């Protein structure tokens, strides 16, 4: 007796269809599982056996062979339990096969037959929608997340007995509910940043154009305070971007159990993180911090304390917006279009070599500065130097609120999307797009040429100055980039004030 069901396997942040084939024939009782299963999949034999018996079904006392196709794709995780159990029940003629053959099944079985939720259900539901069928049958705990995908029928199963009800066509689909856009606690307000007008202006420019920023200053100057308020002035996610971010969070084990779409992520890994933890890795490959920060902010505090090898791993993702983890058998590509914001002290003690309080030796300062290579430093559009704010500034009135700044940022983003397309910003402009959208007059060209000579700009630095200048023009509502915008962009790349 042979039966087939369909399920899905995670591959990076996407899902791949998998066919479950069960063959039951005479012989000594045995249960073989083939198709490159990992340890968690092989252990499903015991979970499936106990769940079937404890739900009142008969487990066949025969030779059972389960094949997970395609056979050359490594299968990982417990999400195949439900499809394997369904195929066994169909092959043993305890439930009808035909209705279940058109459903996608995904879920982990408990020994009592209850169905537990899985990570990555949003990616599975999207793939199920692309491949057609009656819908997807999953654990009740994952139903709200699966309903974020439009046009897919979702069947919420509590136990294995619900599978028989579904096969008879008697289980109603989970009711459709509208998702809450960009849910989650609000970000801290930019009004808390006092006495740092240059830093506040740099944050606004960075948010408006999606530019990466590096802030250097002594401890307590407000670097981390400002970084944690950057998401509060970024434009809200579109629905497609929110689905993308929620899918990544689900794959990483943080499913949207209440049907809420994610807000812009803010990731701040500790400086002891490894390169694999930052860019992704493991077996099977798992997303790293830069993928978890996709469409959001990656904050690297105490940049000089990170290992140089860890920081160098950022160079390619910053340029390409994705990272590929290659293994002997496979390669997985993760999205990584994030906005980087880094903070560093001027020297190991934090006071700066020009300060009377600095006791760092010259070799210590050189070693500290060498953690950030020139190639990586060149990829920051803005470089801001900050000092300790005065007592009057700290005790004065709060600054402009995030809501006010966010209005200007959103207006500038709308101008950029009108030129570049939905979801695009100036930081993502290519060289050919720069040539089309940034035309310099004689005066602006002369200012840029002088800046190139005095600062020794690289080709990448030249382009990034143009991108920042284009953002400054967008914030001012200007169609053309003038000498004032070029001058401000050069200053912000050198000192970080306007």
How would you describe this protein?
The longest helix is centred in the last third of the chain and has 19 residues, at about 400-420. The chain has three domains: about 1-165, Ribosomal Protein S5, domain 2 (2-Layer Sandwich), CATH 3.30.230; about 195-420, 3-Layer(aba) Sandwich (Rossmann fold); about 430-498, Orthogonal Bundle (Helicase, Ruva Protein, domain 3), CATH 1.10.8. Strand 6 and strand 7 form a beta hairpin. The chain is an alpha/beta fold and about 500 residues long. The model has no long low-confidence stretch (mean pLDDT about 90). The protein has helices spanning about 40, 45-55, 80-90, 95-100, 120-130, 145, 160-165, 195-210, 225, 240-250, 275-280, 290, 310, 315-320, 360-370, 375, 390-395, 400-420, 430-435, 440-455, 460-475, 485-495, and strands spanning about 1-10, 15-25, 30-35, 65-70, 105, 110, 115, 135-140, 155, 215, 265, 280, 285, 295-300, 320-325, 330-335, 340-345, 380-385. The protein has a five-stranded parallel beta sheet. Strands 1-2-4-3 form a four-stranded mixed beta sheet. Strands 5-8-9 form a three-stranded parallel beta sheet, sandwiched between helices. Helix 8 (about 195-210) crosses helix 21 (about 460-475).
Task: Let me know the CATH homologous superfamily of the largest domain.
Answer: P-loop containing nucleotide triphosphate hydrolases
Beta-strand content: 15-25%
Strands of the biggest beta sheet: in what spatial order? 11-14-17-10-18
Supply the helix-strand structural class. Answer: alpha/beta
Number of distinct helices = 22
Distance between the termini: 76 Å
CATH architecture of the largest domain: 3-Layer(aba) Sandwich
* CATH fold descriptor of the largest domain: Rossmann fold
The share of residues in helices is 25-40%
Count of separate structural domains:
3
* Alpha-carbon Rg, integer: 27 Å
- Major sheet characteristics: 5 strands, parallel
Low-confidence segments: none
């Amino acid at each position: 007796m042979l039966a087939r069901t369909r399920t899905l396997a995670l591959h990076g942040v996407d899902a791949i269809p998998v066919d479950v084939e069960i063959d039951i024939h005479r012989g000594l009782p045995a249960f073989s599982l083939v198709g490159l299963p990992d340890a968690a999949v092989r252990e499903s034999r015991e979970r499936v056996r106990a769940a079937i018996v404890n739900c009142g079904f008969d487990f066949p006392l025969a030779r059972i062979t389960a094949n997970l196709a395609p056979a050359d794709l490594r299968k990982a995780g417990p999400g195949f339990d439900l499809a394997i159990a369904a195929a066994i029940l169909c092959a043993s003629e305890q439930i009808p096969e035909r209705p279940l053959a058109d459903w996608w099944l995904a879920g982990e079985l408990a020994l009592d037959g209850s169905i537990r939720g899985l990570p990555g259900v949003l990616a599975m539901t999207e793939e199920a929608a692309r491949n057609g069928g009656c819908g997807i049958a999953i654990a009740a705990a994952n139903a709200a997340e699966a309903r974020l995908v439009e046009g897919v029928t979702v069947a919420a199963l509590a136990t294995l007995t619900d599978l028989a009800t579904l096969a008879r066509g008697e289980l109603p689909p989970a009711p459709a509910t509208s998702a809450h856009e960009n849910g989650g606690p609000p970000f801290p307000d930019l009004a808390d940043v006092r006495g740092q007008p240059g830093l506040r202006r740099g944050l606004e420019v960075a948010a408006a154009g999606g530019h990466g920023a590096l802030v250097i200053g002594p401890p307590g100057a407000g670097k981390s305070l400002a970084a944690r308020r950057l998401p509060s002035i970024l434009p809200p996610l579109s629905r497609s971007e929110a689905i993308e971010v929620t899918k990544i969070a689900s794959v990483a084990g943080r499913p949207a159990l209440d049907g809420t779409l994610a807000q812009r992520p803010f990731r701040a890994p500790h400086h002891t993180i490894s390169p694999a933890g930052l860019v992704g890795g493991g077996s099977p490959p798992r997303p790293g911090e830069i993928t978890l920060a996709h469409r959001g902010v990656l904050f690297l505090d105490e940049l000089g304390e990170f290992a140089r090898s860890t920081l160098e791993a950022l160079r390619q993702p910053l340029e390409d917006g994705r990272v590929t983890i290659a293994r002997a058998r496979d390669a997985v590509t993760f999205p990584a279009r994030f906005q980087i914001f880094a903070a560093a002290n001027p020297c190991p003690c934090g006071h700066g070599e020009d300060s009377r309080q600095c006791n760092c030796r010259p070799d210590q300062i050189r070693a500290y500065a060498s953690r950030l290579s020139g190639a990586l430093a060149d990829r920051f559009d803005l470089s801001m130097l900050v000092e300790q704010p005065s007592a009057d500034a700290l005790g004065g009135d709060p600054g402009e609120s995030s809501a006010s700044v966010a209005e200007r940022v959103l207006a500038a983003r709308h101008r950029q999307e009108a030129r570049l397309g939905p979801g695009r910003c100036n930081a993502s402009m290519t060289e050919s797009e720069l040539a089309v959208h940034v035309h310099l007059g004689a005066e602006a060209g002369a200012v840029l040429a002088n800046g190139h000579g005095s600062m020794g700009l690289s080709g990448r630095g030249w382009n990034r100055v143009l991108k920042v200048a284009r953002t400054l023009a967008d914030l001012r509502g200007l169609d053309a980039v003038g000498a004032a915008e070029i001058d401000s962009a050069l200053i912000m790349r050198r000192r970080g004030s306007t």
